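Can't attach files on this board, so I'm pasting raw text. These are the components:
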Amino acid sequence: MLSSIFHFQESLDKRKEEGTLRRLRIQSYGIDFYSNDYLGFAKSKELQQLLLQKVTDNPQLLSGSTGSRLISGNSDIAVSVEKDIAQKHQFESALLFPSGYNANLALFSTLPSRHDTVIVDEQIHRSVHDACKLSNAKKLKFKHNDPEDLENILKRQEGHCYIAVESLYSMEGDFAPIQEIASIAMKYKASLIVDEAHTFGVFGYGLIEKYQLQNQISAAVITYGKALGAHGATILCNETVKSYLVNFASPFIYTTSAQDFQWMSIKTGYEFLDQNHGLAEKLQNNIKVFRSRNLQSPSAETSPIQAILIPDNRRLKALQNILSEEGFLTYAIYSPTVKEGSERLRICLHSFNTEKEIVKLTGIIKEFI
Ligand SMILES: Cc1ncc(COP(=O)(O)O)c(C=O)c1O
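---
Top answer:
Structure tokens for the assembled complex are below.
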């Protein structure tokens, strides 16, 4: 016990020395260029009013769910929201989760079995890696957004393969070539799973819907903590996969269901999204303003996440501090979270940022570089 405490403190001290110690802070006041609230839903008074009205009309929504959905925790609203969501995304079924992390944990710890292989993009979200640790399947990585490397790996596998990609990656702000990857998955009879955390809401219902790939993938994960300004997630899949998860996914079975309030906030978020397409257009205009400032970035032209490479943790910290002093909230990604030499400032653009704010922010970055 004592030696492990030493190890805890040593690891924390090392981070402190490197300037990368994480601390819980209360959100500071400033201009938001760091949150995932891409469309401003989390701050929208109009959406809050809609939700409050629904709670006033149905005050029982705020009570606890009382158990796992398989025992006492299921409800009419959970079932009807799932049905609605499946229909909207044009999938056979949907299964709600309290967060995207839980949804990925359920999928990748449950579907792949002992003789299977999970092939993940090297930049896949941590939740997929954590889930793979709970599964008996083999895990392999393919080079980021490199379908050729994926195909070479697939060719060499014997058992069934699962492929894990995100439609938009949050470290790089670049899109996966999902149409090409879907074709490769079909060719090798592999099961493709796509995480749409950063595309849902920003690009309609996500890229699967945009490219009509529903029949070419085994499951998609939609999260509600980002553009929808709420919390929670859905796995979109067919009836068999849903039933398999309900029967075998520990992260679904052995936990108390979220409250009905959470499902209602998701339902209300969809209604608000359907009525406010203009916000995604505003966001795209802001992305255009940012891109027109000619900062070098590996991110895609239309991505709400724009990464600026500032190699060296100390320089990156210095830039972030300057921006913070000027009132800008940004997020810096240090090594070892990313490879040494590819440390970066991650700018998240929103529908509610103003042109003036973007011009000032980019001006400070340009001067620093
Ligand atoms: C790609 C991706 N998947 C899953 C998650 C987890 O979603 P949630 O925040 O709802 O747990 C995140 C959020 O960090 C994410 O970026």
